[in-house]
């Protein structure tokens, strides 16, 4: 009997920590949604972005081509982009396209962006790190080590969850069929149809980072509003710090002022009567 250990097929990037196994509740009645939430708790789980801002870090790009769906790969040996048929990977037929995960580094692109910018850069995850670019003729390549306007892409998350990529020339990345039935990427499509729609997956930890950053920004905005309100409150206060803002407070103030005037008038009258008595 062989004692060789089976090598794991899970793709892992350098520096990533091993994922701890979680106990699943497989009792009758537990939903697939609950199991999916448990799996997405792991930082290296591949999930789909819900907004363009979530597309960052390691990125897996697929297209539902017919007869075989494809992934956008980079062949570092030949220094060119390859549209790789996913059906040749020997994955079970029950596995849907949306359940797919990258099985080799060639399938992974690294997405970076300038803070506050809607555009992204897609860099190869293998080799020397080349950027995905598109020239004015619509020719897509990945042979530049420096980024410029032609290496910028604007991702748009469509209502069905798919993603379209627009370049600096305001045309879109697409899958085009050339002579002989071969497929290649083009970047000169002016409309978003089937050929321009891609499925994109990112790692869960980067999606969580976006939500955490959003919470911090919202918390900072809330603190600013509270500070402004407290300053206004201080300048509107009188007496023991009681703000005169409501209609009831104004009525009470007028009533107190009226009673004060009546009391003063009564005292003046009594003083006058005493003076008349002793005269």
Automatic annotation (TrEMBL):
It comes from the Eukaryota. GO terms for cellular component: catalytic step 2 spliceosome; nucleolus. Residues 245-258 have a biased composition (Basic and acidic residues). Residues 1-61, 238-258 are annotated as: Disordered. Residues 8-23 have a biased composition (Basic residues). InterPro entries: Actin-crosslinking, FRG1. GO terms for molecular function: actin filament binding. It is found in: Nucleus, Nucleolus. Pfam families: FRG1. Keywords: Nucleus. Its main location: nucleus. The keyword Nucleus applies. Belongs to the FRG1 family. This is FRG1-like family-domain-containing protein. It comes from Boletus reticuloceps. The lineage of its organism: Eukaryota, Fungi, Dikarya, Basidiomycota, Agaricomycotina.
């Amino acid at each position: 009997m062989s004692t060789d250990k089976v090598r794991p097929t899970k793709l892992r990037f350098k520096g990533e920590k091993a994922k701890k196994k979680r106990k699943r509740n497989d009792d009758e009645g537990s939903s697939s949604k609950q199991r999916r939430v448990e799996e997405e708790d792991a930082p290296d789980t591949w999930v789909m972005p819900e907004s363009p801002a979530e597309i960052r870090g390691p990125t897996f790009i697929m297209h539902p081509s017919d007869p075989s769906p494809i992934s956008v790969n980079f062949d570092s040996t030949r220094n060119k982009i390859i549209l790789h048929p996913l059906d040749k990977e020997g994955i079970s037929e029950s596995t849907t396209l949306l359940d797919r995960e990258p099985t080799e580094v060639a399938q992974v692109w690294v997405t970076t962006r300038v803070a506050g910018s809607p555009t992204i850069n897609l860099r190869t995850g293998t080799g020397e790190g080349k950027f995905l670019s598109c020239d004015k003729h619509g020719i897509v390549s990945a042979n530049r080590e420096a980024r410029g306007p032609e290496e910028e892409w604007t991702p748009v998350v469509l209502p069905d969850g798919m993603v379209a990529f627009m370049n600096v020339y305001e045309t879109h990345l697409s899958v085009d069929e050339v002579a002989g039935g071969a497929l290649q990427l083009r970047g000169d499509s002016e409309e978003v149809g089937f050929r321009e729609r891609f499925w994109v997956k990112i790692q869960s930890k980067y999606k969580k980072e976006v939500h955490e950053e959003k919470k911090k920004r919202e918390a900072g905005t809330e603190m600013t509003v509270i500070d402004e309100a407290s300053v206004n409150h201080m300048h509107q206060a009188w007496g023991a710090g009681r703000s005169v803002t409501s209609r009831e407070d104004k009525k009470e103030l007028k009533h107190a002022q009226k009673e004060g005037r009546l009391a003063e008038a009564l005292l003046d009258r009594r003083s006058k009567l005493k003076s008349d008595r002793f005269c």
